[in-house]
Design brief:
The protein is α+β, with helices and mostly antiparallel strands and 174 residues long. The chain is 40% helix and 14% strand. A four-stranded mixed beta sheet has the order 1-4-2-3. β2, α6 and β3 form a beta-alpha-beta unit.
Length: 174
C-alpha cells in the first residue's frame, strides 16, 4: 500500500472514531441490513478501500446496553440491539469489536472494575452465542472511571461498543 492510500485509510479511521449514534436509532436502518462488500465489489481483494472501510464501520454503531444496579445480567430489552450487532458483525468478516464495561460510582474501585468486566463479559458471551467468533470480541472494564453522566448514575451502568476492522491493527506496521 503506498503512502497516499495509507494516509487516506488513517484519515478515515480517525474520522470514523468521532461519530456517535443516537440511542434511539431504529434497528431497521438500511445500512445495518446491507450486505458486506465482496472482493469483486472492492476491486481489491487484499485490502478494503477507504470508502469500504468507512461504509463497513458506519453500519457498526451501537447504542449502549444499560444494566441494573449491581448486576451483570443482560436486561431483556438489550437482546434486540445485541442481535442487530451480531448480525452486522457476521456480515462483516473483517470487523472486530471491543465491549467496554462501566459502572456508577457506588462501590470500591476494585469492585467496580470487576463488575464492569462481568458486564462486558456477559455481552461478549451473548454475541458469541449468536454466532460471532470469540476472537473478534475483546472486553475491557473501566469501572467508574469514565462516567457518561455524573448526575445520572443509571447512565453509567452500561456496556459500550467500539468497532474496528482487522486491517486497522496492522496499519501502523506499514
Amino acid at each position: 500500500m503506498n503512502r497516499t492510500h495509507l494516509f487516506l485509510l488513517m484519515s478515515v479511521i480517525g474520522l470514523s472514531g468521532c461519530a456517535r449514534r443516537a440511542a434511539n436509532t431504529s434497528t431497521t436502518d438500511a445500512a445495518t441490513h446491507a450486505p458486506a462488500p465482496t472482493a469483486s465489489d472492492r476491486g481489491n481483494a487484499a485490502r478494503p478501500t477507504p470508502d469500504d472501510t468507512e461504509q463497513a464501520l458506519a453500519a457498526l454503531n451501537a447504542a449502549p446496553i444499560y444494566f441494573p444496579l449491581d448486576s451483570s445480567l443482560l436486561p431483556p430489552e438489550a437482546t434486540d440491539e445485541l442481535s442487530r450487532i451480531a448480525q452486522a458483525l457476521r456480515q462483516r468478516g473483517l470487523a472486530k469489536v471491543t465491549v467496554a464495561g462501566h459502572t456508577c460510582e457506588l462501590g470500591t474501585t476494585e469492585y467496580n472494575i470487576a463488575l464492569g468486566q462481568r458486564r462486558a463479559a456477559s455481552v461478549r458471551a451473548y454475541l458469541v452465542n449468536l454466532g460471532v467468533e470469540p476472537g473478534r470480541i475483546s472486553v475491557i472494564s473501566y469501572g467508574e472511571e469514565r462516567p457518561a453522566d455524573a448526575n445520572t448514575p443509571e447512565k453509567n451502568r452500561r456496556a459500550e461498543f467500539s468497532f474496528r476492522l482487522a486491517e486497522q491493527a496492522h496499519a501502523g506496521e506499514l
